[in-house]
Amino acid sequence: MKIAVVGIGVAGAYLLARLKNEHEVTGFERSTQENHDSICAWGTTKGPMHEFTKKCGLNFNDHVIHEGKTMYIDMNSQRFTIKLMGLCTYNKIGLIKDMVKSCKVHYGTVPKIEDLESEFDIIIDSTGFHRSYLPRLVRDFHVPTFQYKVEYENGVPFDDFYLKPFVSMSGYFWYFPLGKNLAHIGAGDKNRTHITETNAFLKKYGGKVIKTVGRPIRLATPDMCEPFYHRKVVGVGESIGTVYPLLGEGIIPSLTCADIFIENLGNNERYRLEVLEQFSIYPKVLSFIRNKMESKFGILKHFADLIAIYRYMKKNEKRFGMEIRMSDMMKVAKA
How many domains does one find in the chain? Predict the structure, then answer.
């Protein structure tokens, strides 16, 4: 088949790499090749990423920048740590370039849907938040984010990952190390203090800003993001709500979604049902987050949901790359 992949983030690049041997695939990316970058802090988990990259004939180790051992969390003026088990930062753009190396990709262009439909059998919308070719969502939910890439001359503020959740879990500040003297610092916040918090950290610890990026991240879950397909268009990744709401992390979920698409290529309804099943815990997680944001969360009232989220994350520790403890979940619930 002739397949267009629009949006060459991690999911779009992965789809090009996976589909190119059996189909005629073409990529389209809004950014120019020189400006192609990502708001993502480049954090992911080694184990699952090894499996995904292996399917593309690549070695994920070639792109790992920092392997985490400990995550520092500041919450309610107290600091605690979480043991990490595979969480890392990686060269996301470098990996994307390797995935699409032998593929046809048009940069700096957003084709009209009419032009795509006249030429291609399937159009994959992997445009993330923009959801450029699918119908507008009725129940969207997103958080604005902002990030600096910072270079430090006199030592880095933290030797490992650092997070600071905001009041009522409206978002959080992050510090992700990128090797010896670089880091991504940024924040996402429903209450829109994300730029203020990032600038406050920059002022406190110094550093030279190399790059600035920012965009909203969709936290609406797949059940809120239908339709997944419309005419010749099929959505994959963040365009259909595959960001994990508690962490704002969408790399592994989007690649998982891409695998489901490949396994069900040509059967959109079966793809839809498998996506809803795969991410069935996400609505419960989002409900927890929104109740916290709106000060509606009660330990007794919502304890069953909290336990369900804990069990899901505990069962998938290797996917999240960190030790999951109920005591930490309770700290988040009581924040």
Answer: 1
Do residues 194 and 186 lie in contact, with contact meaning Cβ atoms separated by under 8 Å? yes
Asked if the model's pLDDT at residue 299 lies above 90, the reply is no
**Distance from chain centroid for Cα 193:** 21
What the block records as the tokens of 274 is: 């498998």
Average pLDDT taken over every residue of the chain: 95
Coil/strand/helix, residue 264 = coil
| Identity at 233, one-letter amino acid code | V
Q: What's the angle, vertex CA 240, arms to CA 236 and CA 243, rounded to 5?
A: 95
**Residues forming a β-bridge with 215:** 145
Look up the CATH number of the domain holding residue 125.
Answer: 3.50.50.60
Q: In degrees rounded to 5, what are phi and psi of residue 298?
A: -130, 135
What is the three-class DSSP state of 165?
strand
Characterize 142-162 residue by residue with b for buried, 16 or more Cβ atoms within 10 angstroms of its Cβ, and e for exposed. bbbbbbbbbeeeeebbeebbb
CA distances from 22 to 15, 79, 189, 212, 289 (A): 12, 51, 42, 38, 41
Is residue 74 within 8 Å of 97, Cβ to Cβ?
no
Residue numbers of the domain that contains 100: 2-334
Q: Render pLDDT for 151-192 as a digit per residue (tens, 0 to 9).
A: 999 899 999 999 999 988 899 999 999 999 999 999 999 999
Over its C-alpha atoms, the chain yields an Rg (Å, rounded) of 20
